[in-house]
Amino acid sequence: MFSAAGASELLRKLEEVFTRASQGSGEDYLSVLMKTIKGGGEKEALDRLKIVRLALAKYFARYTARSVGGREILVNP
């Protein structure tokens, strides 16, 4: 589990990597991820990064909704 600050920072960094990779610096930012995807290139790495980014954004939204006003609020997981 991440704290709100940790999730926010990770989401910000993921967005930075995604943006820079999308603008032509994919080799600089995605080389390790591309190596882990057998036969995958930059497009596949960006697709995987989108999935991670979406999952983290959902986690952050749930975390934020649960801690509104310092009270626990029931939110569907």
> Which word captures the global form?
elongated
Radius of gyration: 15 Å
How much of the polypeptide forms β-strand, as a percent range? under 5%
With helices defined by DSSP (H or I, 4 residues minimum), what is the helix count?
Answer: 2
Helix percent band = over 70%
Task: Please count the beta strands (DSSP E, at least 2 residues each).
Answer: 0
Mean of residue pLDDT values: 79
The major beta sheet can be summarized as: none
Distance between the termini: 14 Å
**Uncertain runs:** 72-77
* Structural class by helix and strand composition: mainly alpha
Number of domains: 1
Taken in chain order, the helices and strands follow as: HH
Give structural notes.
It is a single chain. The chain starts with a helix and ends in an 11-residue tail after the last helix. The chain has two helices and no strands. It has helices spanning 4-36, 42-66. Residues 72-77 have low confidence and may be disordered. 75% of the residues lie in helices and 0% in strands. The longest helix has 33 residues, at 4-36. The chain has one domain (4-70). With 77 residues, the protein is mainly alpha-helical.
From the structure above, extract its key features.
single chain, 77 residues, mainly alpha, 75% helix
Concise structural overview:
By secondary structure, the protein is mainly alpha-helical.
Layout of helices and strands, plus pairs?
Elements: H1 4-36, H2 42-66
Helix pairs in contact: 1-2
